[in-house]
Amino acid sequence: MVAEQLIPHGVTDERVLRVMSEIPREEFLTGRARRHAYEDRALAIGCGQTISQPLVVALMTQSLNLEPESVALEVGTGSGYQAAILSRLCRRVITIEREPALAEQASAALKRLGFDNVEVAVADGSMGWPAEAPYAGILVACAARQVPPALIDQLAEGGRLVVPVQVISEEPQDLRLYTKIEGVVTYRSLFPVLFVPLRTG
Ligand code: SAH
């Protein structure tokens, strides 16, 4: 996976390559999906949701440029795999999932595998998680119509927010990287993606 999918397609951060070679992706999957764990595609994780293709996980993670002391926020825990990757690159990860069944499954997998610096919360992630804000890195794993203002507010100075934005239905989603520098928030588009929708409420 690392040699064939990640390195040839722009994943250059050695730390990201290392954690992705160490963390067993199959442990976050169940049933038949397990045997496809290292293939170059998204996979079903239940509740009509999917775990992203490894390359997208790697590129989104790399774009956050986390540091050992950073606290990161993820919206859309799903299987817990992305949260596990983030947790090995920073001090603490808060991850929010609105489907209680997925949150429970992800939380159990993370605990079983010893990812002790990840906290899974059941909530609407579009409100962020004010209790531990601000965050040096925020990763949104579902497509938003517009970037939730709460997430911009909870971004630390110098922080980075990566989020798929569905500007017009039917059009490809735009993966955007927002940065906050001296209080001013700007973004650049990374590449087109296909994520399940962010559902508010
Ligand atoms: N990062 C995950 C994949 C996420 S799939 C992984 O590594 O497996 C997107 C997830 O976002 C789904 O589980 C979906 O239930 C969740 N989601 C959608 N809208 C949400 C919201 N408003 N708040 C929190 N989670 C949400």
Question: Describe it for me?
Answer:
This protein is α/β, with parallel strands linked by helices and 201 residues long. It has a single domain, classed as Vaccinia Virus protein VP39 (Rossmann fold). It has 6 helices and 9 strands. A 7-stranded mixed sheet has the order 5-4-3-6-7-8-9. The chain has a two-stranded antiparallel ribbon with strand order 1-2. Strand 7 and strand 8 form a beta hairpin. The N and C termini lie far apart (36 Å). The mean pLDDT is 97. It binds S-adenosyl-L-homocysteine (SAH). S-adenosyl-L-homocysteine binds next to strand 2, helix 4 and strand 4.
SSE order and pairing:
Layout: H1 2-6, H2 14-22, E1 43-46, E2 49-51, H3 54-64, E3 71-75, H4 81-87, E4 92-97, H5 100-112, E5 118-122, E6 135-140, H6 149-153, E7 155-165, E8 173-181, E9 184-193
Parallel strand pairs: 3-4, 3-6, 4-5, 6-7
Antiparallel strand pairs: 1-2, 7-8, 8-9
Bound molecules: S-adenosyl-L-homocysteine.
